[in-house]
Amino acid sequence: MRRSQALIPRRRRSWRTRRRNGLIEYSGRNRPLMSESIQAPGFLDSTFRVDDIHGRGVLGNRCPTLWDPAAMPSSQGLLAALILVVCIALAHAPRLAFAAEKNPSTAPATQDASAPIQDAAELASYALAQGRFQEAAALYTRALSRDPNRVDYLLARGEALEKCNQAAKALQDYKRALEIDPGNVRAMIASAGILEMNVSGEPEALALYKKALPLTADGDARERIAFSIAVLESRMQEETASAVGCWNVGNRHARKGELDAAETLFTRALELNPTFYQAYYSRALTRLKKHDADGALQDLSSALALCPTLRGCLVTRGLVHESHGRFAEAMADLKRAATEDPTDPEAHYHLGRLQEREHAYSDALASYLEALRRRPKPELREAIRQRIAILAAAVKSAARQEAPQKPLW
Questions:
Q1: N or C, which end of the chain is more exposed by having fewer CB within 10 Å?
Q2: 310 and 277 in contact (C-beta within 8 Å)?
Q3: Domain that holds residue 44
Q4: Distance from C-alpha of 326 to C-alpha of 249, rounded to nearest angstrom
Q5: Burial label, 73 (beta-carbon count in 10 A; 0-12, 13-18, 19+)
Q6: Which of these three, 43, 66, 89, is where a domain ends?
Q7: Which of 25-34, 113-122, 313-322, 400-409 bottoms out in mean pLDDT, i.e. has the lowest?
Q8: Do 134 and 204 sit in the same domain of this protein?
Q9: In this structure, is residue 107 part of a structural domain?
Q10: What secondary structure does DSSP assign to 243-310, as a single string?
Q11: Tens digit of pLDDT for each residue in 39-77?
Q12: Quick check: 320 pLDDT over 90?
């Protein structure tokens, strides 16, 4: 043999690892490996085996986790120590970053012009800007303990408390700021914003908004304050002070069966808004329940003049005409209703009834089928099916009567 070599026997089907004299040897199928033991410089108590065939090496005994700079030359030892320091720093960097992210207050403060943190007030301002509202409120409380009459501290702590859903405490700070500085617009708007959330605080909020409006110079802020004033005024007025409010209250009375009160409120709504066609229609239905057909027809015509496509209005007027024997007017209204609103099943059903009355059975059957196709309510669907059954029997009877009789011989 050429050198001190160990010939590892061949293995056909598998790789094998064995330990010999403290060294790890590898062998594989059809690959005899010759290895040589070399002391690896720089590693403590480790042996490096060189694979003569593949040019690779394997460490024996223990994993080389420690370096021995003394076993290296001076330059190599210095380089190894530098690499070791860098590896330790990189290993600890994620841990420090996670700790700073978990508790930002422990992060080193940057002493620049954007966020100078020197005392409690500056720390509180920085925490408020970062969204740490509870911490900001606590820091502003510490700052106010030294200077309790600082309006800006009170306003900032009120803002932080409001973000923490502590509106009552925030309102106390805003009111305290107004006691110190009665003309502070920011305190007025902030206080009004909290007060208007409760019905009992709406009058005080309205007064604060009206007081802040002439003191505000910014155009956008003035528009927002004016809008808040308009909303509060409309919310605080009586419901019957507007046409829509009268109509809503009148509908509630009508559902309770209080027809006189409902008619009075509908009339009041029309006095406040003469073009309120829904009020005309509601008053017409109320008058029909009171058996005032003439007044109902007048209101229905007024509603149709303002809104020709108002659903149900033409059908109702056609039924009123039918009830008074004016079948031509009723047919005209129902045909118009079925044409202008073809999705209304009631228009097709009542039109079919009138067509059946005029013995136009084919047209009546078409109207009934169209009404069924429009998905009517269950009670109307049952009525349509009954009319179709009656109409089918009538058509069969008419067909038998019109059939020519065969001669007897």
A1: C
A2: yes
A3: 6-66
A4: 34
A5: exposed
A6: 66
A7: 25-34
A8: yes
A9: no
A10: HHHHHHHHHHHHHTT-HHHHHHHHHHHHHH-TT-HHHHHHHHHHHHHTT-HHHHHHHHHHHHHH-TT-
A11: 444 444 444 444 443 444 444 444 444 445 455 455 666
A12: yes
Count of structural domains within the chain:
4
Q: Is residue 178 part of a domain?
A: yes
Q: How many CB atoms lie within 10 A of CB 125?
A: 20
Q: Does 315 lie in the same domain as 262?
A: no
322 and 369 share one domain? yes
Residue 228 lies in a domain: no
> Are 130 and 110 in contact, with CB atoms under 8 Å apart?
no
What are all long-range contacts of 23-26, with beta carbons under 8 Å and residues at least 24 apart? 23/47, 23/49, 23/60, 23/61, 24/49, 24/58, 24/60, 25/49, 26/51, 26/58
Q: What integer best gives the mean pLDDT of the chain? A: 78
CATH number of the domain encompassing residue 392: 1.25.40.10
One domain for residues 11 and 59? yes
Tokens of residue 129, six digits: 């800007």
The reported pLDDT for the residue numbered 155 is 93
> In terms of domains, do 139 and 211 share one?
yes
User: Would you mind telling me the total number of residues written for the chain in this entry?
Assistant: 409
Which residues, in sequence order, are CB contacts of 380 under 8 Å at separation 6+?
345, 346, 349, 371
- Say if residue 353 is in the same domain as residue 387: yes
Q: Which residue has the higher pLDDT, 48 or 369?
A: 369
DSSP 344-390: -HHHHHHHHHHHHHTT-HHHHHHHHHHHHHT---HHHHHHHHHHHHH
What was the pLDDT predicted at 402?
64
pLDDT at 190 over 80: yes
Residue 90 is assigned to a structural domain of this protein: no
Residues 282 and 362 in one domain: no
